[in-house]
């Protein structure tokens, strides 16, 4: 189901991306509307799949998760059974924050957040014990310059 979005819908979405804990009154005031129409639009966007879920953003370093690795994976396996095992291995690991299948020389890229290099190695050893990969390159992020916490609306 495709949901048609107008400028007011986009303003509401920008506010929700900025801080979803705001009250309906605060959002309505910011976007120049009233509470009931804002609620109806949010409900419609949830039902239409535009809004997937609401969650909170945690500060990784405050929780002792100080290392972010971008893991580049090349595989010689491309059959459906391997892909299913790989997907299951990723789903079972909360340290995998993002996973993307790529076009080009690298097959997959993962964003992995862990406490330190030793924790990354434990992740790596567990992953390669479950699925066969041809080549793995891990790149340590030295500093996060920008985080994609919201879509451009």
Automatic annotation (TrEMBL):
<keyword id="KW-0805">Transcription regulation</keyword>
<dbReference type="GO" id="GO:0043200">
    <property type="term" value="P:response to amino acid"/>
</dbReference>
<dbReference type="InterPro" id="IPR019888">
    <property type="entry name" value="Tscrpt_reg_AsnC-like"/>
</dbReference>
<dbReference type="InterPro" id="IPR036388">
    <property type="entry name" value="WH-like_DNA-bd_sf"/>
</dbReference>
<dbReference type="GO" id="GO:0043565">
    <property type="term" value="F:sequence-specific DNA binding"/>
</dbReference>
<dbReference type="InterPro" id="IPR011991">
    <property type="entry name" value="ArsR-like_HTH"/>
</dbReference>
<dbReference type="GO" id="GO:0006355">
    <property type="term" value="P:regulation of DNA-templated transcription"/>
</dbReference>
<keyword id="KW-0238">DNA-binding</keyword>
<dbReference type="InterPro" id="IPR000485">
    <property type="entry name" value="AsnC-type_HTH_dom"/>
</dbReference>
<dbReference type="GO" id="GO:0005829">
    <property type="term" value="C:cytosol"/>
</dbReference>
<feature type="domain" description="HTH asnC-type">
    <location>
        <begin position="5"/>
        <end position="66"/>
    </location>
</feature>
<dbReference type="Pfam" id="PF13404">
    <property type="entry name" value="HTH_AsnC-type"/>
</dbReference>
<dbReference type="Pfam" id="PF01037">
    <property type="entry name" value="AsnC_trans_reg"/>
</dbReference>
<dbReference type="InterPro" id="IPR011008">
    <property type="entry name" value="Dimeric_a/b-barrel"/>
</dbReference>
<keyword id="KW-0804">Transcription</keyword>
<dbReference type="InterPro" id="IPR019887">
    <property type="entry name" value="Tscrpt_reg_AsnC/Lrp_C"/>
</dbReference>
<dbReference type="InterPro" id="IPR019885">
    <property type="entry name" value="Tscrpt_reg_HTH_AsnC-type_CS"/>
</dbReference>
<protein>
    <submittedName>
        <fullName>Lrp/AsnC family transcriptional regulator</fullName>
    </submittedName>
</protein>
<dbReference type="InterPro" id="IPR036390">
    <property type="entry name" value="WH_DNA-bd_sf"/>
</dbReference>
């Amino acid at each position: 189901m495709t949901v048609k979005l107008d400028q007011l819908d986009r303003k509401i979405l920008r506010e929700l991306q900025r801080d979803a804990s705001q009250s309906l009154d605060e959002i309505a005031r910011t976007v120049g509307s009233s509470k009931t129409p804002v609620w109806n639009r949010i409900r419609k966007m949830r039902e239409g799949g535009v809004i997937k879920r609401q969650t909170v953003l945690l500060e990784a370093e405050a929780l002792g998760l100080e290392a972010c690795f971008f893991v580049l994976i090349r595989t010689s396996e491309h059959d459906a059974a391997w892909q299913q095992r790989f997907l299951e291995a990723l789903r079972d690991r909360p340290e995998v924050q993002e996973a993307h299948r790529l076009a080009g020389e690298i097959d997959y890229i993962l964003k992995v957040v862990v406490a330190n290099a030793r924790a990354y190695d434990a992740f790596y050893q567990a992953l390669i014990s479950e699925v066969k990969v041809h080549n793995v390159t891990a790149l340590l992020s030295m500093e996060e310059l920008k985080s994609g916490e919201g879509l451009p609306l």
